[in-house]
Amino acid sequence: MNTNVDLDPSSSEKTLEPFVRLIGAEFVEFIFERAPRKVASRVSKALDHFSKAMRLTGVDEEMGAIRCIAAEEELVVAIFEVLKLNAANLPAHEDFIRRYKNHYVKLSFHPVLSQFRWILSDMIRNGITFPGWENLITMRLEPVVDEGRVKLRMHKEDGQELVALNPLNVSISCDDLDHEDVVEELFRDFEAEITRQSGMTVRQFITARAEFRNTLLYATDAGYGAMADRLDELIERSFSVAYRDLLWALAILLDNKPAHRNWGLVSQFIGLYRRVLSHSKLI
Length: 283
Known about the structure:
Helices cover about 55% and strands about 5% of the residues. By secondary structure, the protein is mainly α. Strands 1-2-3 form a three-stranded antiparallel β-sheet. Helix 3 (about 35-55) runs antiparallel to helix 4 (about 60-85) and helix 7 packs antiparallel against helix 11 (about 265-280). Mean pLDDT is about 85; it is low at about 1-5.
């Protein structure tokens, strides 16, 4: 059996286009150029799964959905590998990293990440200002590749660049709460949003998300399930969103590090992710 892996998708019939549509060519190329082999191999396999899934639309939609789930899991493992390689600069994370083969752990990652995207997207979309200055100046933010890293470029509305920021040197604040209390507040918001959207508890939601894969693959004593949604609709409203968020997270983590290992977005994310996993009895 030939086990050689081609990590340059552009050199074969497989292209970067499915991921380019999500975050742009510059950033996809940056990931493949900067990522260590053990990271790039996971991204390449995720791209392979996604490309093949799209070709299964109207042919074998359930197998296409399974490939989409596998693509999401591969991107999560790619991020796990980056966290392992940068362990000295990041909070402790061995408790969930070593569960990288657990589908429940991997499929819990994006729902937590989406909580951060929801909080930060308004800042990216509408810009930032300061109290009392709302009608005078608004600064816009956009991701750029600068000096071999993905940064957030801050500029005035007239386009004048002010500074390029390391995205990891940002922290979510909530009144005067300290780190642990902010994470707990984020968990309460996450819990409320899950209940509002699905009517489930956090543990039920995380379990159901992972069990969707098993429902498509395996029968039980009572029979077996079938996918009710069309594959193209699932890709549009769910999987593409997950891939976009995970690719952005991966690009930002490559070669960036926070000012302090226990401060900032990465620390808060790991705190919330651990809280969700422990609440769901996964660690």
